[in-house]
Amino acid sequence: MTEQTDTQDSSPPKAGAIIVPVTLFEQNCTIIWDEPTKKAVVIDPGGDVPKILDAIKQTGVTVEKIWLTHGHIDHVGGAAELREALKVPIEGPHVADKFLLDNVVASGARFGMTGVRDFAPDRWLDEGDSVSIGELSFDILHCPGHSPGSVVFFNNALRFAHVGDVLFAGSVGRTDLPGGSHATLINSIKTKLLPLGDEVGFICGHGAGSSIGQERMTNPFITGEM
Fold first, then answer.
1. Spatial contact of 116 and 105, defined as CB atoms under 8 Å apart
2. Are 29 and 21 in contact (CB under 8 A)?
């Protein structure tokens, strides 16, 4: 479990975050909370639910929602179980990933992941929607390419985003899975993420986070296609 300070800001709102790596894919399940209220959200509980529950307990926050960036098994494998354990709603991803959530069990079987469930979220998300936890509000950006229904959560006041598997430090999401499109992904990054501003920091679905500016300057998948 790795402490993150990307979401700290010198002026209100105040937020905190921890990353809980889960599954064999070392997926960044992320817990983000509103500091004044300690109300929290779990983003992409891909599996290892007991580990996530332990992290929640250690952090001392109250989880009120689960948010999903997209429907791939390493991001959603534990979502139904965690929803049942916490009695909280699931929000996201975009409805274009419904075919993935309808086949979580089959997808899990291909990777030896048992105990997962097919499910539907309590709310699908779309471009222009917003979600909130405590005093924190995040705008929804629909960023297809890695999957048809991938979404990004962006908090303008914090200059912070959770980008799922759309963009990585030095790389971008793979596009060889069903519904993937490299051209669509690069377009999403160029038209939705880069305009957010170079100072925007982000947590991604795997590995270390980065900033929009760093990736604009050094990410070969972006600089080679500008």
1. yes
2. yes
Residue pointed to by tokens 């947590």: 203
Q: Would the pTM of this model clear 0.85, i.e. be above it? A: yes
pLDDT reported for residue 223: 87
Beta carbons of 71 and 149 less than 8 angstroms apart: yes
Q: State both tokens at 48.
A: 């290892």
Give the DSSP H or E segment for 53.
Answer: helix 49-59
Residues of the chain with pLDDT under 50: 1-9
Residue 61 backbone phi and psi in degrees, to 5: -105, 165
Rounded Cα distance between 127 and 90, Å, is 17
| C-alpha distance across the termini of the chain, in Å | 36
Residue 183: count other Cβ atoms within 10 Å of its Cβ.
10
